[in-house]
Predict the 3D structure of the following.
Amino acid sequence: MRCLVTGAAGFIGGALVQRLAATGHHVQGVIHHTAPTFIHKNVEYLPGDITNPEFLQSIMNHVDVVFHCAAMVKDFGRKEEFYTINVDGTKNLVAACETHSVKRLVFLSHIRYESGKNTTSYDETKTLAEHYLLEKYDKEQFPVVVIRPGNVYGPGATTWVLRPLKAIQKNRIALIDHGTGLFLHTFIDNLVDAIIASVDAPEAIGQTIDVTDGDNTTTWGDYLNALARMAHTPPLQRNLSKRTALFISKLMMMNYQLFKREPWVTPMAVEIFTNHQAVSIEKAKTILGYTPKIGYLEGLQQVENWLKTEGYIT
């Protein structure tokens, strides 16, 4: 199988590239700002930009499957930039797929959170891209599969491993609502299993499929304190109510808009940390034959081993 992976140097895209190459597939990996660290004879990296239609058209010859992992993934920033990358970039990719008769496009989206409030440009533009793709399927039978991962973690993760760990080490973190929100942990290897399974599953086309480790009991308090134990720091004691955390986050967003000072907490982060909505993976099990192979405790152990190897903890 000849594959194209956008966002090939990112956490998810990079893990996917490694798995595809290791199992004998030829991979073209689109990279932008981040240089890849994985080199393999089956992988060809292509520096480029998904907002450039001509570039995408030029690289799509003989591609069987496209895995669209590239996106602007931040909870603050210019809305126009989010739209250009997440919406227009996706449309450019679809046009190139259609020109070259690509057999399937797997789109990495994200799970929605409970309140539906405090939506960000990231959430809005990923939703718009999703709607566009599903409409293309409904009207033209465009072969798309939408995968919605939960909170993806594992060795190499920045968002849900290194950032909270460093905040814990600097004593610059607080629980929100005593850490009772659900950590929808999704181990990176499990997610890659589901992504690859979506290529051959005939019933997956036109579907949106939620993917987590299937555990709706682990809280953010559980996870953050597990990181604290790895870092040999005391359990987290500082706590904010959701109302207070939202107030602070909105002040920080105003400060960012006025003075471009990056916020250390945002409304989107507050919603994630206080989410109580369970997620079912029955659809993934039924359609993809998905079974999470790496459980929470094993996932934590792999994270700890990696952090020690890389020198982030002792």
In short: The chain has a mean pLDDT of 94. The two ends are 42 Å apart (CA to CA). The chain has eleven helices and eleven strands. Residues 2-309 form a domain with the Rossmann fold fold (CATH 3.40.50.720).
